[in-house]
């Protein structure tokens, strides 16, 4: 079932005309790529980490992105201060639980942040989203594709309900849900997996879409599709050149991707779990 | 009025033969781009942040660049230690007040640094330079172009006099002043605004020019023009490809830009306020 | 004397099939380039710095890379915790003493780490490797090429014996030794010197080779040669374009370089000191 009514391609134009300020408290690996990706798309990135200023910066912003990729205890504190300020001022918060299942510390810090800050959107891969609510239970083995997807929908659901957020569980296909309705986005390109920070940048891009789109479920579906379409355009451009060239072309295409590209190339369907 | 006597194109050659060591204490977003830009230009970048070593590193260097883009309190302390060491050893200090007006904390920290360290050059956009001395007073509105420029010259002037530094107020056009003489540089390209850290890298590049040019006003005018010329050459190279390709080409052109390019392409004029 | 028996080109294939997890505690300048280089090569990078989680992350990994490029005291503490965990779990540790001779603090911290953690591989330039054991004694002057090389072999030797590690002293040519046998690798390209972090990334790449190759001396010789071959292929690709384009092409070629390229292009010889 095609669900193009969930795509609001005009959000792309609104990002470019409104240039929303996106405050990122993110990991040390992806700072430059995140800022360049947001700039290319048409948004205005800012990074600020000091406890003394994050509340002020979050208040000024149109979205706040919290990414735990290279956590330190003082950064967690800053994230909570910034998140509470965003909550007070109606600024949507996007949360990216990078590697949350890999160490107990990350899970503990992620849960601490989520217990103190109301987030609008959570984006992560299947393991991260499932890990957040303790519901890993992923079916293992190569013959278990169907059961695996079924389990993932339930896990995304549980995460969305638990944190009252739109969840984007991204991977080969991207599942987006608010806990009751579910969409599958089938855009993107495998080369995106060969560039560090493409998941993190997507979270920040969802900040930009959420900043200009009051319907967060629609903003996230649209943002995920637009990002995947830019990836497809970049792969067309660079072909077999390799991941270095693809990274460059992807930034180019975040700049060039249009509402028309999105309307013609987005592949979105509703999922009935 | 043309002012090519303020361009000393030979400084480019001196950077390449002397390879001055530029010590950067900069924000976490632009570290790699700054180092790659300085390397491409022919200088030697070093980054060092620990309180225990910044005095030693600043002493070894030919210029010190302090950039407050992602301040933390312990980094401010390191900046002051490094700055005092640079002052003691005659190493020029370049200060970049990134986003100084956006939060009270940034302004307070910037003023603290400037009260303890003598800086040779301050580079920022109009809002940042004006904010440093509390003289925002920018004329608002689309019909106020002339008054606005007039106000900016006064603000740059006040900043230069207040901190006894050469001020580079950069934007669509770049205004450079030591508080009494004023130059306007009209090089550069709009695509520079689509790559994160091009302002920050310019501050570090001014470190390289100041390291090899005893006349700091001339070194800054020349550095700003050379940087803009490299941007124009890069835009010629990449045309409509987009900001990812431009970033790559800009690093290429920082490597290739010559004294002859600078002599033929620099657009500098004296301003009578 | 040709020593191709020291090249195990199949290690490249093993990295791509096993995708070893490489835990990097590295400097803030090279994080993205390191992660992108490891991804391009086929390995799985992870960065984690918090004291609370580095022991867990190092245990999960197939190699741990410690790089002191932008040291802070709390990072040193995290490095030691991670290193001890790696030692307990048989995970090889690669150490990169960036700029160790430039300040007393760096030397002290490097020695502290090496006194508490057993490292399998140390990679640095001639000054860094020599500095680690206090044996600088490099012959100065342009006419002293032969004595200089002789001195360097002795210094690499002393470092390898002192820390019971394979030492890769890299530069125009790369010297690799376990303290008794010595190999010279003559691959690479001068453009590698114009991109920041190519030394740091090599250290992380040696982590990937060490992760899949039980014979660490052979793994390091092979990794250094493969890295140099990728550099040569990238330089062929970009020619005179400049360091920005070279950086992109180098990431592409880390993805494309094959066991056959390595077998036909590696230049390795045994050295009799």
UniProtKB/TrEMBL annotation, chains A, B, C:
Record: residues binding ATP: 123, 170
GO MF terms, alphabetically ordered: ATP binding; hydroxyethylthiazole kinase activity; magnesium ion binding
Matches recorded under InterPro entries: Hyethyz_kinase (IPR000417), Ribokinase-like (IPR029056)
Reaction(s) catalysed (UniProt annotation): 5-(2-hydroxyethyl)-4-methylthiazole + ATP = 4-methyl-5-(2-phosphooxyethyl)-thiazole + ADP + H(+)
Pathway(s) it belongs to: Cofactor biosynthesis; thiamine diphosphate biosynthesis; 4-methyl-5-(2-phosphoethyl)-thiazole from 5-(2-hydroxyethyl)-4-methylthiazole: step 1/1
The EC number(s) this enzyme carries: 2.7.1.50
GO biological process, one term: thiamine diphosphate biosynthetic process
Top-level taxon: Bacteria
Family assignment from sequence similarity: Belongs to the Thz kinase family.
Protein name: Hydroxyethylthiazole kinase
Gene: thiM
